[in-house]
Fold this sequence. Notes:
By secondary structure, the chain is of the alpha+beta class. Helix content is 23%, strand content 30%. The strands form eight sheets. It has a seven-stranded parallel β-sheet, with helices on both faces. Strands 1-20-19-18 form a four-stranded antiparallel β-sheet.
Amino acid sequence: MNIMKRWFVTASILGVVLSGSEGAWGHDKLEFPESSFSRRLVPVGRILEDPNSFVWGCSPIYGPDENVHLFYARWPAKDGFTGWKGKDSGVGHAMAAEAEGPYEIVQKAIGLNKALAAHAGGEVWAHNPEIQKMGDDYVMIYNWNRVSAGKGARKIGLAFADSLQGPWSIQPEVIGTGPEGAWDHVTVLNPTLIEHPKGRFLIYYRTWDRDHNDKIGVAISETIRGPYTKYENNPVIDPAEVVGEEAAGLEDPFAWVRDGGVSILTRDFGVFKNRETPHDEGSGLLFSSEAGLNFSHLPEIAYHGTLRYYREDEIKPGPRWRRFERPKLLLKAGQPTHLFNALGGGAGATSSGHVFKIAETRDQQTSEARGRSAKRQEDKPDSGPKRLIWDTDMDSDIDDAAALAILHRMADLGEVEILATVSGSPMGYSVELVDVINTYYGRPDLPTGITRYGEKNSWILEGDTVVSEYPHDVTAENAPAAVEVYRRVLSKQADKSVTIATMGHLTNPAHLIETEADEHSPLSGKELVKEKVKETFIIGGAFPWQGHDHGNFDRDAPAADKVAEEWPVKIHWIGGDEDFIKVTMTGKGLRRVSKDNPVRYAYELAGKLDSEHHSGDLIATYIAVRGTQPYFKVRRYGYNTIQADDGGNQWRTDGNKAHIYTDSYRRGVSPEDFAEVLNSMLSAGRQ
């Protein structure tokens, strides 16, 4: 009996409802059981959104650096969706510290097209990449074609490298179309590769017949490099025999070894569809086989369409915007941890990747789904302000004063709740100037503290002058210790709810993680930070390295070193003076505020209202509240180190401490562009 006929008989015995004779495209509802895999999916959201490019399918793998590396199909947005068949369609490489992103592009093109073009003697496109580690090699399987050739000229190739950064050696023609009249003579595409636990390498691929009925076959080899021989009983999956002779669609197989056998995920567009919500396309099917050759068992629902996980207004309209395609799994020790798909829409209405987390249990899935829903609400501008502790030196430069002014502006807009403003400088006027600005901007009762450590240096005399002429209640004598303010404020916050942003020396954070339990919390300082703090932003240094002292680190270099080494939560470093911070000039926005504004007065005393001033602390404060989009680049994969003797810093890539850094603008954004954003905020004055 034909494999798929056995499948149909089995399905009938199990009570599959197939009313009438019409196919699944049409009218009757074909019901498949939902898999445990599907019940454990927790939607995370989009990744690799790029208004300048289409991203269509992401194949993930853990690298030796413990980062997640993605190999993905991409092409320019200007070429439209069908640009995937053009000469600029190729394979890119991105990385993230965590599977859920955010991702940074490492290589927009990995050189595969050039190698294939040299082989083919003409322009080519490459598509459908899938990456995995086999033996000592990283192995990528892919589709390619000459740009001038038709669909039938597609081929399936392999590429090998000993590093995820390449270079890649290619084996361009592992599988081609069959002879005229063969079941796969039209085309071969969507390849996926496994090594079966009982030996042999299997490549599954998709094709269709003249009526466009989709089928999946397999080719087998004793070695990874081939030769591959097509299975004599192909196709191994032929859904047309289940749903009738009308077009029955499935595509994008992804195979992996599960429980000693083989499972295949496919994107469905004709075997099963949710008839009650016909636009909710993009569901997936899950097939299983012990030997990987006989998929006679009833397929299960692997995942549902987009509208099962998102509101309709969260997904762009139109057929391509609504469906998940290109399923790929991220495996850790052979077990899937995340499902990656392609999803149309996103930034620029192009397309992006999409990630599901695979929960370990159904209870975890339910809990995490609620958490994801809350996170999506959190990310909306009107969903509630960030909760932030702002730490400043306010003694070595006046940009701290302007940064505090824009922080109050964002608080007025409801974007941030200022929990406390503490001074990392022992200079008395530093904490007093903080209170002057808080008082002027209508928040005189903000918790404010001063460090009791470090060297006193009066670097900006205008601080003394401003303090002497403006009302304030906090003085150097009555201000509590900054670490006491930290502990008191943190102890009252929800877990993982607080953002810390430091604009100067790291004296306070270093002493905070050395504190012991007290009347505010039974936790040590390090435990308290780990429990309450979600993220930390630190301005200072240059990246990837700076071999000399830096103002924010050298005044208390041992403290800076301690924070870089021991801080227990994510750190976002912001630096890069000469090409970033010091070329972004602000201050003129203060010309438009009242002359009684203390920040304007400080800039007047410093002679910076006309010549303007660099914007380091303003940029750091902005990023801490509003994030890096759409102005700034984020770089990942590594960690920052700071020398305890002089405060020099170096970015290392031989490990990972959940550190990231920003030291430049995105392409197309100029310092002048962003300076206008900051000056506009400064010009708002107090509300």
